[in-house]
Amino acid sequence: MERKTKRWINLWQILICYLSLSACTSKDQIRYEQFVITGGQLYQQHCANCHGESGQGLRELYPALTESKKLEDLNYLTCIIRKGGDKMPANKELYDLDIAQISTFLKYRWAKDKTITETEDVSKIQCAN
């Protein structure tokens, strides 16, 4: 077989393998993984300074996230991120999408919940002043 033809066959085999493997991941799974990754980056940027990179908190000053049942409450989580509370400052510069991504990351990392937090669900939440 000619060298050029063999090279084209190898390229086609690689392309077919790539397409086969990428087809195994659904659009929903890819979107979920994007939320977790981006949420983790936003957590590092906006939350880790106080709550710690591992969510361990700092004694009584900043609560640990590692075993917090509050991570399961989207209303609480959205409002505490938006408005702050106790010693936590408000994060007014975050969009609903950012909060949804952070929430998805928090649930994935510490609540062992593998569901995505939808931006629409965050948008519907009304926080008290």
UniProtKB/TrEMBL annotation:
Gene3D superfamilies xrefs: Cytochrome c-like domain
Keyword Iron: yes
GO molecular function ontology, one term from the record: metal ion binding
Keywords recorded for this protein, A-Z: Heme, Iron, Metal-binding
Domain Cytochrome c span(s) in chain numbering: 34-110
Heme as UniProt keyword: yes
Domain of life where this protein originates: Bacteria
Name this protein carries in UniProt: Cytochrome c class I
Source organism (scientific name): Leadbetterella byssophila (strain DSM 17132 / JCM 16389 / KACC 11308 / NBRC 106382 / 4M15)
